[in-house]
Write the C-alpha cells for this entry.
Amino acid sequence: MDGLKPRIVEAIHRQTQATVTILSSLLAVHDELGYMPKEAVEEVAAFKGATINDVWAVASFYPNFRFDPPCQHHVEVCWGASCHLVGAMPVIEQVLAAIGLEGEGDTPDGLVSFRLNTCLGACAQAPVMSIDHHLMGRLSPESARAKIDGLLG
Ligand code: FES
C-alpha cells in the first residue's frame, strides 16, 4: 500500500466530530483519496475494532463510494431543469462523443470520468459543465466539444 497507508491513517485520525463511526471514517478516507482502496477498509476495521465484513457492508451500501482510483480528469455535465431547457442534451451528446462513452463512467484509458449532475449551482449560466471542478457556462455543443478536445490534447 506504500504511499497510501499514511494518508489513510491520517484521514481516519484527523476526524474532529464528536461521533466517529465506520461511515464517517470511510468518508474521511474517500475525501482524502477520491476512492476507497481495500486497504482503507482494513484500516477502518482496525481503527473501529470492527470486522472487515462489517466495514465492507457499510462501504458497499453507500452508493457514492468508488472503489477504483479516479481518472485523471473529472467531467460533469448538468442535466438539471434549467440546463435541460436551454440545450443540455446536445451538450451531453457532444461531450460523450468526444470521450467515446455512451453514458456515465470512466474511459478505459483512465483519462476521463464522466458524470451527470442534477444541478451544478450555476443555473443562470446554463447550460453548464465542470471540468476538474472548474465550472463553465453558456455552453454550446460546439464549445463544449472544443473544451473536451482541448483537455484531451
Ligand atoms: S440546473 Fe444546471 S446548473 Fe442548475
The chain has two domains: 4-61, 73-152. The longest strand covers residues 73-78. The mean pLDDT is 94. Residues 78, 80-83, 119-123, 126, 128 surround FE2/S2 (inorganic) cluster (CB under 6 Å).
